Amino acid sequence: MAITGKREKTLLRVASIPMALLALSCLYPIYFAINNALKTDKNYILNRFSVVTDPTFNNFVNAWNRSHLGDYFWNSLVCTAGAVTLLLIVSSLAGFAFAMLRFPYRKLLFMVILASLMIPVQVVLVPFYRTIIALDLVNTRIGLIISYTAFFLPFCVYLMTAFYSGLPRELVEAARMDGAKLIQIWWHVMLPLGKPALITLGILNTLYCWNDVLISLLVLQKNRTLMVGIAALKGEYTTNIPLLMAGIVIAAAPIVIIYIVFQRRIVNGIATGAVKG
Amino acid sequence: MGSPAEKRIAFLFIAPAILLVAIFRIFPLGWGFVLSFFDSDGMTKFNFIGFGNYVAIAHDSAFRDSLENTLILIATLPVWVALPMTLAILIHQGVPGGKFFRAVYFFPAVLSSVIIGSIFNMVLRFDGSLNAMLKAIGLIPVDWLGSGGTALFVLFSVQLWSTFGMSLLIFLAGLSTVPKELTEAARLDGAKPLQIWWHVIIPVLRPIIEFVGVVTTIGALTSMFGLIYVLTAGGPGTSTALPEFLIWLEQGKMNQPGYAAAISMLLFAVMAGLAYLQIRIMSRNTNL
What we know:
The complex is a heterodimer of chains A (277) and B (288).
Chain A: H1 6-37, H2 41-46, H3 58-65, H4 69-100, H5 106-115, H6 125-134, H7 141-165, H8 170-173, H9 179-193, H10 195-211, H11 214-219, H12 226-236, H13 241-272
Helix pairs in contact in A: 1-13, 3-13, 4-7, 4-10, 4-12, 5-7, 7-10, 10-13, 12-13
Chain B: H1 4-35, E1 38-40, E2 46-48, H2 52-58, H3 61-75, H4 77-92, H5 98-105, H6 107-110, H7 113-124, H8 129-136, H9 148-175, H10 180-188, H11 193-204, H12 206-222, H13 225-231, H14 243-253, H15 257-283
Antiparallel strand pairs in B: 1-2
């Protein structure tokens, strides 16, 4: 702000105190998790609040091997990577068509995809589950990948369409008459030009897929994803809190790294939904 | 209208998106709608009972709990909007440490609700850290998650805490569109800071306030499953269940999918209204 009055400066300085406390509270859970993950179970019960003095990594080893978080981690990784890849391909194809090509029922079909925002997984829980069973996709990774894609798709299509409609139409004019050329244009022109939007969507959907519980709880009932594994661990080992905290650190680590590296893109991506970006 | 080749390719390009949405969302919605009028075990028994399931819902105390909780949540909506808005304005006005606050406030929003729920469960359970601390300083421990009143309060607070950073970002994006001349002119006219907030900044933010209100309500109705699942499991009893969690409980029983489907339809009716508002705001931005 250019001109700041004295009164305003004081107001801001006073406000920064509760704001700093709030900021501390946002960091506290991760400190709580890391600090206690490094304690032994006995040490946790005796010294709850103290900072760990003789850190042990046994909890991580046990969580990874004995509690199968290693398997779940791999599972989450494959499903997240698969779903994000599929989401980006499907949404950039659709966004390209909606934004640049001319065909009947264009607006209607776009609205159908947007309108499916009205149907979150909770609303179709029972029949969705039955559909997954009927298609023989239950307990398969491909089933989870397809489900994630179906449920996270509308915003992606929306954003890609918005992004591509900002590009000059001349890019496709020449190829209008030739179908094969349009596919080449998608691959050689649209994908590279769409990079900023695709990266944003890639990061956001990585978060959504990695963090999901409900969809994976339905689709993968034998071979769990990491978040379902953590939820189960919380149920099974209520007494062994350090083990659970080690699991949480393992599950949160990739997200924390992504957040630190891509903070600006995440922030901008969230804002685009609300304000013209 | 485009050439035949263009039309063919266009349909080919949108086909995967349309098919995915149709098979996994629209078709199940229709199926659920039909199912909601049947007394069914999902396998062999399909008895048409008209509005029977809906009548049963009206007498179901678990559903009443979830509805009541939803209404309480909606009644607290002003807090969910005003808190991030106030913080966003403060950051925008250049509060000391603003950049740091912005980065840190958003941090809980990127963590899975399972992670946040588990940590808060460990802190707030009866034998958890908070009570240990209360005891250490001579206060009486509270069963935060075990009694209906506090459990609901805790659940909503944790959800608010973990999502306010998201709303704050949306407000900051909106604030960057507030013309500087407006606030400076008001200041030159001798307006006090709070007057400027109330009469200049907040009116410009109105569309953002609407958007955050809608998105927060949608989030509260559809993205609290993970948190409820690990933090309170809907309990004690069903005192912290929201409709989405109730649907999960009902489908888990599996002997009455028609009943779960009927609750789903009610949730859909609410979602449809909210999503309509959201889509209207979003499609303002695409100019298709």
